[in-house]
Automatic annotation (TrEMBL):
CDD domains: PMEI-like_3. Residues 38-188 form the Pectinesterase inhibitor domain. Pfam families: PMEI. It comes from the Eukaryota. This is Pectinesterase inhibitor domain-containing protein. Coiled coil: none annotated. Residues 1-22 form the signal peptide. Keywords: Signal.
Length: 225
């Protein structure tokens, strides 16, 4: 029970941290301008632990939210769209390929990409779920699915190992963005506990006490929904 409450609080805290940062900016500038500023700041914060920051910020640039869970979802949706785009390109590659082994590798790859997307969709479901009784299990599931998604994309590339260097390089280029976006997703979900534990983000240290008080006052921690 205690652990369950801590888990729920943790996730709410993560959301609160960014929301508090948003409020700080809000009071300084105009309302909708402030909202966009807040969203930009939240994007920077959530992209901080990613390996491909530029790609991360680009993929979240159109978002208008400070909720980290929503932002991570936007990032994962971008990865799904990218893989779907890649797969739709397979047919044009395949049409021009007469080499049997290349065709086989492409077929296998298509299958791997399907699995890769499935894993991403599972993590989207998990992020949408309000049932966060244990934060460690919650994050671990996300890590497993996102890690699996990366593995499937690598398996696709591996399938071209002995086919032809040219085909492999082509695939590598094609899968470059989706691999970066998926890797970023994994980095973001992995940082959820840290984000919650340290609260060491610029401008957030001051808000720490306030956030806790607010949570206690609103009864967030004792009545998880
Ligand atoms: C961002 O969202 C807020 C609140 O949901 C809304 O008031 C605002 O108009 C939105 N801004 C843009 C640029 O979409
Ligand atoms: C490529 O060839 C090497 C050496 O023959 C072999 O060990 C490896 O398993 C092959 N890779 C694939 C993906 O078939
Ligand atoms: C994608 O390409 C960029 C630029 O060449 C490179 O820095 C990056 O490591 C590549 N990412 C992956 C996952 O291969």
């Amino acid at each position: 029970m205690g652990k369950a409450i801590i888990g729920v609080c943790a996730v709410i805290l993560v959301a609160m941290v960014v929301a508090v940062a948003a409020d700080a900016i809000h009071s300084r500038s105009g309302r909708s301008e402030g909202e966009m500023e807040a969203s930009k700041k939240a994007v920077k914060t959530i992209c901080q632990p990613t390996h491909y920051k530029e790609e991360c910020e680009k993929s979240l640039a159109g978002s208008n939210t400070t909720d980290p869970k929503e932002l991570i979802k936007v990032g994962i949706q971008a990865a799904i769209r990218e893989i779907e785009k890649v797969v739709s390109n397979f047919d044009t590659i395949q049409d021009g390929t007469t080499d049997l082994r290349s065709r086989q590798a492409l077929d296998d790859c298509k299958e791997q990409m399907g699995y890769s997307i499935n894993n991403l969709k599972k993590s989207l479901n998990q992020l949408s779920s309000s049932d966060v009784s244990r934060l460690d299990v919650y994050v671990e599931n996300l890590r497993i699915w996102l890690g699996g998604s990366i593995t499937f994309q690598q398996t696709c590339l591996y399938g071209f190992e002995n086919v032809s260097t040219e085909a492999r390089e082509k695939m590598k280029k094609l899968l470059n963005t989706s691999q970066m976006l998926t890797s970023n997703g994994l980095n973001m979900v992995s940082a959820i506990p840290e984000l919650n534990r340290d609260l060491k983000f610029p401008g957030l240290t001051r808000a720490r006490g306030d956030t806790r008080k607010l949570l206690a006052k609103d009864g967030f921690c004792s009545t998880p929904n």
